[in-house]
């Protein structure tokens, strides 16, 4: 047998009609059932009680409202009951004693810690007071208890309540070093602020903020954001807050520790750059999700790879606070593999870097395909000039590609590293040089450095790095010093040749990169208080000193002050260098030649650069297409030929920079000189011979045209008519008497 449904409580409409019709007996009868029903909001019931109050049945209204307040308290607690009592007070401002008693009791219950509250209630909510107005004032006083924070628009800083005078209803507040009182009529100027109001905590409770910054940086930053009118915390303001609390050193340590945590919080939005601003997100957003979206939205594959490397570095640091997300690693690894395939045809350098990134992701244990070393070799075969990698890739990707080659290609990596080394900047030079030494590729490093010294203008940063690094300490310096052919003098000579050439290029083009190389080289030239430079000057042979003097005095890359300083160093150590006559054939800084001889060398250089080297590059590409490079003799031979041509071009380029035309004044001297024609008689045979002394590019032994630098020519240099020339020793000794000296050029 089914139970009868419970009777429904009377409707609000019915209760309202009973009140309006003054049918109070029936209303009183139905009221307990309505109050007990959870269907009705207390505000609706109190509105009906207020209607009874306005019909002058104040005692009944007081009773009805009291029943509602008591029901709310039993069901929802004191806080909800106080809200109901204040609502009742608004309905019945001068209500009878029950509502007033409830208001007094519930305020005291809710704010038991407020010692001054009883006195304030007596002052503000007495028997004759407007209960609704009193409740509003009591709320303000309760929000401004001693220790509470407030703002007053008449003050630039927040304030803190120091005391409350309950007898007068006066609140005493402090604003930094100023004080202000508020009474019942002026209380509206004091606007309460929560207990965690950031600006006030900075002034009055810094220890509390200091503890929060140390224990929970995210909560600290969120608190600061919430206090800003625009909801933004700039890096500058954040630094100022933390520095105020922890000091400058404390800020540096805090930022280093907290930065990663702040960037990773799902509710904090950190701006880009090294000095981000912070705002609060409306919805949580995981750091890994943000990183993944940025990767997927980036259209530049090189930038995508750099993002992957940045994430790998971030999660691999020794002090990293978060481990790498496995799903994100898989996404990154697959993305790098896709870039490697897509870039293979037109951007092999980028493809190589992508393989390196993929290998790094795989090394983290991500569930991606294992790297195949043969893939790197196939990509490398598509790079005809490994040295060009430095221009094709940003440095981070270049280093990644080079490291991957070292790990995957034990037979080929050093050659690529050396090719890049010849074009690298100083920071990368240091990394590559140390890597070659650690990888026991000393001979490869030696050959690369010898090539750079031979052709210094093509490896400006490397030559500058070599000079400074060989005078350092540690294994790198000892290794460089052990290269017998790369003496300190030769390295200094290369550095001066390079600065002269780059200085000339800067004067012609004005390009900033030339200025950067020059400024770096000038600093390196006088490194260690110029002691290495002074050591070379002291130990140099006479011919070397002449060479140094010319390179220093006529150097387009040295500013006047530095040239003057170097000249003074030379003069102080070798004063005779500036007092004795310097013969042109002893000048190591110049190569004297005829215009025809210089044109022949210029044509040789042009042919090598414009015809032979491009042909060698094509041979390399064709040989690489034949398959496995480890057993490809054609590829190896083509590489060797290209390197030989490059070395020859470097030599010619360097020599042409030293070219000087043989002048008529030199040829018309009264002694044997460059550019003279000499008639001499062999004193043993009586036979007369003619010798012409020109430059190394004019030599023709069939016509007795000798290079003035040849040993036989040097024996003749400086001799006058009638003097004897002796050449050779023992059975090879020969002797001539000079009969005449005349110009060999016109």
Describe the structure.
The structure is a single chain. The protein is of the alpha+beta class and 746 residues long. The chain has 33 helices and 14 strands. α1 runs antiparallel to α2 and α4 (58-76) packs parallel to α6. 34% of the residues are buried. The model has no long low-confidence stretch (mean pLDDT 90).
User: Counting H and I runs of at least 4 residues, what is the number of helices?
Assistant: 33
By secondary-structure content and strand pairing, the structural class works out as alpha+beta
Q: Number of DSSP strands?
A: 14
C-alpha Rg, in Å? 47 Å
Order of strands in the sheet with the most strands?
4-3-2-1-5
Helix content: 55-70%
**Biggest sheet, open or closed, and with what strands and sense?**
5 strands, antiparallel
Q: Give the mean pLDDT.
A: 90
Features:
five-stranded antiparallel β-sheet, about 750 residues, five-stranded mixed β-sheet, 14 strands, elongated, single chain
List the helices and strands and how they pair.
Elements: H1 12-20, H2 24-36, H3 42-54, H4 58-76, H5 78-91, H6 97-110, H7 117-124, H8 131-143, E1 149-151, E2 159-165, E3 170-175, E4 178-182, E5 191-193, H9 198-204, H10 206-215, H11 217-227, H12 235-264, E6 268-270, E7 278-280, H13 287-297, H14 301-316, H15 326-343, H16 348-363, H17 373-380, H18 389-392, H19 395-408, H20 413-421, H21 426-438, H22 442-454, H23 460-469, H24 475-481, H25 488-509, H26 512-525, H27 531-539, H28 542-553, H29 560-573, E8 591-593, H30 595-624, H31 633-656, E9 659-661, H32 664-667, E10 676-682, E11 688-694, E12 705-707, H33 711-716, E13 724-727, E14 734-743
Parallel strand pairs: 8-9, 11-12
Antiparallel strand pairs: 1-2, 1-5, 2-3, 3-4, 6-7, 10-11, 10-14, 13-14
């Amino acid at each position: 047998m089914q139970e009868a449904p419970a009777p429904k409580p009377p409707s609000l409409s019915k209760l309202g009609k009973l009140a309006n019709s003054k049918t109070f007996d029936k209303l009183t009868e139905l009221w307990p059932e309505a109050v007990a029903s959870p269907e009705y909001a207390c505000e609706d019931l109190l509105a009906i009680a207020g209607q009874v109050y306005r019909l002058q049945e104040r005692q009944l209204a007081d009773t009805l409202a009291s029943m509602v307040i008591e029901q709310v308290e039993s069901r929802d607690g004191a806080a909800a009951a106080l809200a109901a009592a204040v609502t009742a007070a608004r309905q019945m401002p001068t209500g009878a004693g029950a509502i007033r008693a409830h208001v007094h009791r519930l305020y005291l219950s809710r704010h038991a810690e407020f010692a001054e509250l009883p006195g304030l209630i007596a002052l503000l909510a007495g028997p004759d007071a407007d209960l609704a107005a009193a409740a509003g004032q009591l709320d303000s006083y309760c929000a401004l208890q001693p220790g509470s924070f407030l703002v007053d628009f008449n003050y630039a800083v927040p304030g803190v309540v120091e005391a409350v005078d309950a007898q007068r209803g006066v609140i005493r507040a402090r604003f930094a070093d100023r004080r202000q009182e508020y009474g019942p009529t002026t209380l509206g100027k004091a606007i309460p602020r929560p207990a965690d109001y950031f600006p006030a905590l900075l002034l009055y409770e810094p220890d509390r903020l200091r503890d929060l910054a140390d224990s929970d940086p995210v909560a600290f930053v969120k608190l600061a954001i919430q206090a800003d009118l625009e909801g933004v915390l700039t890096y500058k303001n954040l630094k100022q807050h933390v520095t105020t609390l922890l000091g400058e050193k404390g800020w540096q340590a805090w930022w280093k520790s907290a930065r990663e945590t702040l960037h990773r919080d799902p509710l904090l939005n950190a701006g880009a750059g090294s000095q981000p601003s912070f705002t609060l997100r409306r919805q949580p957003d995981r750091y890994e999700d943000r990183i993944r979206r940025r990767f997927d939205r980036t259209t530049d594959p090189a930038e995508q790879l750099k993002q992957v490397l940045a994430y790998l570095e971030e999660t691999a640091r020794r002090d990293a606070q978060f481990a790498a997300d496995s799903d994100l690693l898989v996404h990154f690894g697959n993305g790098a593999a896709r870039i490697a395939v897509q870039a293979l045809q037109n951007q092999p350098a980028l493809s190589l870097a992508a393989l390196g990134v993929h290998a790094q992701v795989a090394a983290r244990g991500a569930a991606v395909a294992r790297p195949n070393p043969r893939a790197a070799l196939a990509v490398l075969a598509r790079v005809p000039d490994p040295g060009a990698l430095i221009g094709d890739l940003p440095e981070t990707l270049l280093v990644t590609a080079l490291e991957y080659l070292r790990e995957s290609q034990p037979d080929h990596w050093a050659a690529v590293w050396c090719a890049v080394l010849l074009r690298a900047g100083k920071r990368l030079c240091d990394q590559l040089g140390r890597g070659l030494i650690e990888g026991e590729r000393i001979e490869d490093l030696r050959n690369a450095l010898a090539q750079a010294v031979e052709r210094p203008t093509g490896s400006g940063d490397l030559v500058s790095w070599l000079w400074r690094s060989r005078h350092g300490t540690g294994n790198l310096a000892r290794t460089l010093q052990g290269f017998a052919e790369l003496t300190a003098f030769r390295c200094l000579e290369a550095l001066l040749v390079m600065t002269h050439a780059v200085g000339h290029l800067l004067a012609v083009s004005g390009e900033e990169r030339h200025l950067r190389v020059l400024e770096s080289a000038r600093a390196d030239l006088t490194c260690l208080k110029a002691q290495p430079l002074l050591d070379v000057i002291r130990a140099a042979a006479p011919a070397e000193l002449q060479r140094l003097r010319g390179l220093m005095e006529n150097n387009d890359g040295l500013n006047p002050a530095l040239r003057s300083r170097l000249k003074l160093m030379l003069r102080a150590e070798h004063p005779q260098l500036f007092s004795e006559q310097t013969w042109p054939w002893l000048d190591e800084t110049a190569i004297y030649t005829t215009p025809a001889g210089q044109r022949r060398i210029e044509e040789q250089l042009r042919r090598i650069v414009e015809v032979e080297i491009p042909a060698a590059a094509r041979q390399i590409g064709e040989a690489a297409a034949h398959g496995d490079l480890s057993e490809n003799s054609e590829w190896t031979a083509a590489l060797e030929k290209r390197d030989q041509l490059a070395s020859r071009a470097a030599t010619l380029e360097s020599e042409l920079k030293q070219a000087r035309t043989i002048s008529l004044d030199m040829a018309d001297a009264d002694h044997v000189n460059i550019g003279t024609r000499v008639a001499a008689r062999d004193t043993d045979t009586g036979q007369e011979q003619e010798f012409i002394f020109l430059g190394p590019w004019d030599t023709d032994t069939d016509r007795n045209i000798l290079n003035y630098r040849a040993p036989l020519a040097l024996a003749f240099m400086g001799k006058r008519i009638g003097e004897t020339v002796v050449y050779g020793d023992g059975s090879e000794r020969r002797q001539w008497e000079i009969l005449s000296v005349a110009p060999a050029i016109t």
